[in-house]
Amino acid sequence: MVGRSDSVTEAPAGKTVLASSVAKIYTGEIKKGIEALGRKPKLVGFLANTDPAARMYADWTGKTCQETGFDFELREVDKEELEDAIFQANEDDAVDGIMIYFPVFGNRQDQYLQQVVSKDKDVEGLSHIYIQNLYHNTRYLDSEQTKKSILPCTPLALVKILEYLGVYNMLLPYGNRLYGKTVTIVNRSEIVGRPLAALLANDGAVVYSFDIDGVQMFNRGDGIKLRRHRVADVEIKLEEAARLSDVIITGVPSESYKFPTESIKDGAVCVNFSTAKNFDPSVKTKAALYVPSIGKVTITMLMRNLLRLIDNKAKTVASA
Amino acid sequence: MVGRSDSVTEAPAGKTVLASSVAKIYTGEIKKGIEALGRKPKLVGFLANTDPAARMYADWTGKTCQETGFDFELREVDKEELEDAIFQANEDDAVDGIMIYFPVFGNRQDQYLQQVVSKDKDVEGLSHIYIQNLYHNTRYLDSEQTKKSILPCTPLALVKILEYLGVYNMLLPYGNRLYGKTVTIVNRSEIVGRPLAALLANDGAVVYSFDIDGVQMFNRGDGIKLRRHRVADVEIKLEEAARLSDVIITGVPSESYKFPTESIKDGAVCVNFSTAKNFDPSVKTKAALYVPSIGKVTITMLMRNLLRLIDNKAKTVASA
After folding, report:
1. Cα dist. A260→A292, B69, B157 in Å?
2. I need a labelling partner for A32 at 20 to 30 A (CA). Which of A91, A268, B184, B315 fits?
């Protein structure tokens, strides 16, 4: 019973999964969508800052869009002229989708600008109606359920990654596929962390959401009886939540921040959406699956949202 | 934020999954296997008792075998003549597979009889070499890894059910696909419970195995570093293990036994392999997926094992 039975393997059991593996699944679907459409959809990106990271993201979006078959135009404008430029693009029938490279002013005015983008062209899915639908677990724009609501692209990318990783159980009914899963999210921004917590809880998970203001638990109650999530302030340490969690998602914009590896549950799924590496390489001694960055999936979701916006518009015209 | 947001759904979120849904996946594969073989494989079942349950199981195996394309023959013999009858079937080239409907003597002599069946015809996968391979996480019979070892059919059926239910993560390397999963098994028989615990632990799970003698934990150590499982006696209450478990498997042969529903983790997977119903109908208020019985999958695995035995034999002849 001893001998080779106790032999120890050398490499950690954890496996790295690259965003590109997930993205390519959707690229095929998107290309087919463009083919069916019979024309190149046009996406306009607005750059009104000199942030090199924003510029890089813009270049990257442009490259990916063109490779996939979209017409991408980067419009560089002065920040004081951005609102007018957005109005113009909203009115222009040749423009299918619009996105803004933030930060512009770097304060609440940016949230105002985001709402200036017509909801019919908002590829990032940040218009108030979309976010409100997300929080209320309302998945369609119309009562006939023909037009799906748009999801914010980074939370959506994380959902698609969790689907790919087998965290969503496809045998469960749509809307309940995270039932039984516990998730820790380190980030509660209005753009990603908070909508993500709501989205995953609406799909059935118990979510611990951490930020500097404290911890909140998002869930649908015992036996996921509630139709949508509820939120409660809770007292739980990060290490304790981590030990309970099947999934850990980080988005801390700091190079010095590292998630404590020792508190990760053996065999967990770890995903980082920050541009900084929030997990130490030792993560693979604990995690079964580790996704170091998600950017490529996010861009794919921008393109997917653009096709959905065009589809929703066609349905609106058809039913008018 | 209140109002419809707090509306409560009526039915429990849990979903029942029938063994027939899992079995039919393998029936197709098995039929193709028979087609490729070009002849009807012959399975002989020995019945040497008057137990109505054994008779029913025999009739059911026969019916399923015939529907799927096997030649099934039930041989009813006196228990004192069974050993000779098995010897004869072992030697008969027209017989591909052999199984015995237990109990025969109802004591250790039954284990002796089981070992009388030639390992080359043992569709139940209970020959010592197969069980030893299972415990040692040795998956092939030969060093060239061309002939897969046979797994005992009930534990194998449970593995296939857990694969179907999405508990095995297909993104992880073969052999590690239960990494991160905690399982409670109530039954530690030599035929099902103990080999099952070893099998699931060898695939990466942490398993709590309960029987009247106490609790054992089967696992491959921190970060599944060990090549095969180890076993430790542990002190943990059933309720506590259940609360930690993603999967609960019961096999208590008693109509009065019921697993305590209130200790099942929200969203767990619950599978019963006893002929008695070990879960109360309330299980669906806690479990996400519930499999009430597994018999149909077990029979399918008998047939699958038979094809594998024929395949292994062909490979032995080819390499001789």
Report:
1. 15, 57, 39
2. A91
- Using CB atoms, which residue from A14, A15, A226 is nearest to B8? A226
Cβ-Cβ contacts under 8 Å for A61 (sequence gap 6 or more): A43, A45, A72, A99, A299, A302
| Cα separation, B107 vs B214, whole angstroms | 22
Chain A CB contacts of B246 below 8 Å? 180
Q: Which two tokens stand for residue A139?
A: 């998945």
The strand order across the sheet containing B71-76 reads: B71-76, B42-47, B97-101
Beta strands in A48-187 (DSSP E): 71-76, 97-101, 182-186
CA-nearest residue of chain B to A180? B267
Q: Is B176 on the interface with A (CB under 8 A)?
A: yes
Strands of B247-250's sheet in order across: B15-16, B289-291, B269-272, B247-250, B182-186, B206-211, B214-219, B230-234
Q: Is B2 on the interface with A (CB under 8 A)?
A: no
Answer whether B227 sits within 8 Å of A5, measured CB to CB. yes
Measured in whole angstroms, how far is the alpha carbon of residue A182 from the centre of its chain? 18
Q: List the single best residue of B5, B134, B289 to mutate versus A (max A Cβ within 10 A).
A: B5
Alpha-carbon distance of A140 to B63, in angstroms, equals: 49
- Please check whether residue B296 is in contact with residue B275, taking contact to mean a CB–CB distance below 8 angstroms: no
Token pair 């080819």 in the structure block, residue? B318
**Could you say which of B5, B204, B288 has the minimum Cβ distance to residue A136?**
B5
CB-CB neighbors (< 8 A) of B224 in chain A? 13, 266-267
B194 near A CB under 8 A: no
Which tokens hold the place of B31?
Answer: 């039929």
B246 near A CB under 8 A: yes
Residue A230, chain B, CB below 8 Å: the answer is yes
Residue type, A233: D
CA distance A147 to chain B (A): 21
Contact B127, B115 (CB under 8 A): yes
CA proximity to A238, closest of A230, A228, A229, A248: A248
Beta bridge partners, B8, equal: A226
Instruction: Give the pLDDT of chain A (320 residues) as one tens digit per residue.
Output: 333 445 777 789 999 999 999 999 999 999 999 999 999 999 999 999 988 988 999 999 999 999 999 999 999 999 999 999 999 999 999 999 999 999 999 888 898 999 999 999 999 999 999 999 999 999 999 999 999 999 999 999 999 999 999 999 999 999 999 999 999 999 999 899 999 999 999 999 999 999 999 999 999 999 999 999 999 999 999 999 999 999 999 999 999 999 999 999 999 999 999 999 999 999 999 999 999 999 999 999 999 999 999 999 998 888 76
Compute the nearest-CA separation of A223 from chain B (Å): 6
Task: Out of B34, B85, B153, B201, pick the active-site residue.
Answer: B153
**Complete domains list, chain A, with CATH:** 37-121 (3.40.50.10860), 154-296 (3.40.50.720)
